[in-house]
Design goal:
Blueprint lengths: L8 E6 L3 H7 L6 E5 L9 H13 L8 E5 L8 H12 L5 E4 L5 H18 L7 E6 L2 H5 L1 H5 L5 E6 L1 H8 L19 H13 L3 E4 L8 H14 L3 E4 L5 H7 L4 H20 L7 E3 L2 E3 L1 H16 L3
Parallel strand pairs: 1-2, 1-8, 2-3, 3-4, 4-5, 5-6, 6-7, 7-8
Antiparallel strand pairs: 9-10
Helix pairs in contact: 2-3, 3-4, 11-12
Length: 307
């Protein structure tokens, strides 16, 4: 997976539903993941592998630039079967594997080894299939820095709010929603810890789902907070969430215009002073090298989005 490509919206697609898989092909998201884990009932998991395999082999493909597969976690009896059926059968059509419930770097390293054997056996380029590690509980968050450094295949860290809320005993039954009775943002710490670990190791950071698919305001607020922190994108569960998700993680035009003014003014002042400029005033604010870096980062992100 090319980390320079946008990851604003990542659509969850149940692997057991041929209808949902077909519908996902034309949706305007930046990535889709075909799910063999939580979205598939235990009795349907084996059959779902074959549906996903057939879908990946279908020549119609997806409008989304990236297509990934969420396998079952290592504590389940299905992980190896998921990999050997779907990845061995159509790994050349996949950009990455989403590994859920990661609690230790050894779990990432294990899936790396299996992917290497599959790629070598198929004659595919080694290391082409990426890994997305999903952080979903207290133990995983406590080990997030080590997990982020576990494999060269890692392309992103993903927050899993549902299992995380359960592992901490948060007082809410709605995944991704703030627990009642707590005045601050209950997700600020896990999101920030995941973001710092991701950036320290050159990875993307993706926020997890908001299950209130009819709560447009709630989804927008959740996406806006993650975007404000610096996350690259968010999972979406329904087509109604896509437009709002894409907008939340797309820099607004007024910010881009100001960023360009900052960079242009600083470059002009630096050229005039022979590189000796320290700080300048732009839009009634002092701007030094740190402010220029912020502006350059925003412009670089907008360039990736084709703005």
């Amino acid at each position: 997976m090319d980390l320079s490509s946008p990851r604003r919206t990542v659509l969850a697609v149940p692997g057991s539903s041929a209808r949902f898989i077909d519908k996902s092909r034309q949706l305007p998201v930046d990535a889709v993941f075909l799910d063999l884990e939580d979205a598939v009932a235990p009795d349907a998991k084996v059959a779902a592998r074959d549906k996903v395999l057939a879908a990946l082999r279908d020549q119609r493909g997806w409008q989304a630039p990236a297509v990934t597969l969420r396998v079952n976690d290592w504590s389940s009896p299905w992980t190896i079967g998921d990999l050997m059926t779907v990845v061995a059968g159509a790994g050349d059509r996949l950009d990455a594997i989403v590994l859920p419930k990661v609690t230790d770097p050894s779990q990432v390293q294990a899936i790396d080894l299996v992917l290497t054997q599959i790629e070598r056996g198929a004659g595919w380029p080694l290391g082409r299939i990426g890994i997305e590690a999903q952080i979903e509980d207290a133990q995983g968050l406590a080990m997030v820095n080590q997990i982020a450094a576990a494999s060269q295949r890692l392309v992103s860290l993903v927050f899993g709010p549902g299992d995380f809320m359960a592992s901490l005993g948060m007082g809410s039954l709605s995944v991704g929603s703030q627990p009642s009775g707590y005045p601050a943002d209950a997700f600020h710490y896990p999101l920030m810890a995941i973001l710092v670990a991701a950036r320290a190791h050159g990875l993307a950071a993706i926020d997890g789902p908001f299950v209130g698919i009819r709560d447009a305001a709630g989804f927008q607020a959740s996406a806006a907070k993650a975007a404000a922190l610096g996350f690259d994108g968010k999972w979406v569960l329904h087509p109604d969430q896509i437009a709002a998700g894409n907008q939340a993680f797309t820099p607004p035009s007024d910010q881009l215009a100001r960023a360009q003014r900052i960079v242009t003014a600083y470059q002009a002042a630096s050229a005039q002073s022979g590189g000796a400029v320290g700080a300048i005033e732009v839009d009634q604010e002092m701007v030094d090298e740190a402010g220029v870096k912020l502006a350059q980062a925003l412009l670089a992100r907008s360039s990736v989005l084709g703005q």
